[in-house]
Amino acid sequence: MPKTKKVQAKKTASKKTRADFFRVADGMADILPKDEAWWREIWRAGFSISECHNFHFIETPVIERLDLFVNGADGVNGDIEKRLFVFSLKKGERVVLRPGGILPILRSYVEHHLGYFSSPLKVFSYGPMFRRHPGVDEVAVSHEWGFQIIGDNDPVYDIQSITVVLDFLKSLKIKNTTLKINTNGCRVCRKSYQEKLKNYYAGAKSDLCSRCARMAEKDIASVFMCKEEGCVAVKECAPIILDYLCQSCNNHLKVLLELIEDNGILYEPDPYLINDFDGFNRMVFSIRSASGIELARGGRYDYLLEAIGGRQIPGVGSLLLAENVIIAMQEQAGLRTRNKPKVFFIAVGDQAKKASVRHMSLLRSNGVVVIEMLGKKSLKTQLKFAEKTKTPITLLLGQKEVFEESLIMRDMETGAQETIVAAEVVDRVKKKFK
Ligand SMILES: [Zn+2]
Ligand SMILES: [Zn+2]
Fold first, then answer.
1. Which of 18, 42, 203, 397 has the fewest CB atoms below 10 angstroms from its CB?
2. Which family, according to the similarity comment (predicted)?
């Protein structure tokens, strides 16, 4: 490169604007303080529901070895490197930002012999999952609450994986959801169905949109989801798995649907809801909001552990999609706001500021919500903030009060104020709010 061009290139490279530096990485997104109340509500409901349904907490790392995901399982198909965030560690080990929660938990299940401690093992997890959407400008991170029941194939656990997310949504006051259910069959019966379906779609190629014509052999689930008129018409005449189920799968489905009906749960059978990955079998479900957003989904995965090199241990699970649930909450549900601050703390002078930290800690550890603006020095400015926040009580601490081990308590509504003994501050504040 001639010298002038080199200089020019260097200049261009350094011409990054502030906007370039302060920009989130492609595919990622911030969760901002303005949305705190929604997230807090999900965490509250999530932990409480998990406890009531007897699920125990498990957390696996955000980074896993790529090997764990190469079998095309856990909701990832096609070119895995294009779909996942893959990179190498220094030792040359290929790792990935986890695209789903089930495989890491199965990995941990085997690694730590969790099946010996409880069978079935019921665990819940919460965290971000990362999936790329090649060519689509879509956020690649989604936060999921997952519930797994590993070690038993009884339909009584299928219904538990459904009720736990239904109760979760109910606790968030999300109404008018639709539960769709189908079965994927098993190794014995699914093959003949898949064969029939393949032949049927091969003969209908000319009626499909160009994308579906390409995808029919690779990803039938996405073809079933296509809204193009021609594709919908082809789908509606396609063979359905219910006509191909073996006796054992038929029984499983029958018992499950009886359990669902006995529990008064409304559902819609959906023969086009399938999970086509080899590790998944039998029950599959999806829950959508009134406006059609998918809020939760789940299914049985009796072959998944085997698919990644383990023994055949049955499992069933469900997950709740936090970002989508927040959209549904914003659309319809009332929002519980965070606890309102009760006390505004004002300190004037260095010694008072120091002492105020101890007072605030004591109040907070006793469950009192305290706010302050201690970075501002003058009493006037701090008082102005206190008035703005509409906190019912203000506690004032100056040099004199520190020396006398007292505080001034001011009722912001009436303006009345009194001096109280510092040691009694928690009791006095709590009494005010009884
Ligand atoms: Zn079967
Ligand atoms: Zn189509």
1. 18
2. Belongs to the class-II aminoacyl-tRNA synthetase family.
Selecting from 3.40.50.300, 3.40.50.620, 3.40.50.800, 3.40.50.1820, what CATH number does the domain 343-432 have?
3.40.50.800
Which ligand number lies closest to the CA of residue 225?
2
CATH code, residues 33-186+246-332: 3.30.930.10
Residue 71: per-residue pLDDT: 61
8 A C-beta contact, residue 158 and residue 300: yes
Task: Specify the amino acid at residue 179.
Answer: L
- 3-state DSSP percent of the chain in helix, strand and coil, to 5: 45, 20, 35
Per the rule left: phi > 0, alpha: psi between -120 and 50, beta: everything else, 349 is left
* Dist. CA 416 → ligand 1 center (Å): 76
Q: pLDDT value at position 81?
A: 75
Residue with tokens 């400008």: 137
Task: State residue 413's pLDDT score.
Answer: 87
Please tell me if the domain spanning 33-186+246-332 has the same topology as the one spanning 343-432: no
The domain locations on the chain are 33-186+246-332, 343-432
Ligand 2 midpoint to CA 206 (Å): 11
Residue 316 · residue 161 · CB < 8 Å: yes
Which ligand is in closest contact with the Cα of 227? 2
Give per-residue pLDDT as tens, 28-63. Answer: 999 999 899 899 999 999 999 999 999 999 999 999
Q: Using the structure block, give the residue that is written with the tokens 């191909």.
A: 244
Average pLDDT estimate for 370-395: 87
Does the annotation flag 44 for ligand binding?
no
